[in-house]
Specification:
It contains three helices and five strands. By secondary structure, the protein is an alpha/beta fold. α1 runs parallel beside α2.
Amino acid sequence: MKTTITQDGNQWIASFAGRLDTAAAVQAAEDVKPLYDLERKEIILDCSELEYISSSGLRIFLGIRKEAAAHGSKVIVRNINADIRQVFMMTGFISLFEII
């Protein structure tokens, strides 16, 4: 599992690659901490290379959303595959995030 954070103007992009499972979640949670304190930014969670997400991974996404809302930032999830979209639908996350 690899998490990369880049900045492009007012957008911060967190790219996830591999399997965001329980084993990878500890490191991924640490990797995304810089996103927690962003004021009035657009945070993109790019899942184009994400193969799988577990409940631990969903908690990370939820934590990012919670902190973003507290700081006036917006979170967008992009490029989820069909399997991850199904997980989002089954868990209700599909209504929590803007997905493009």
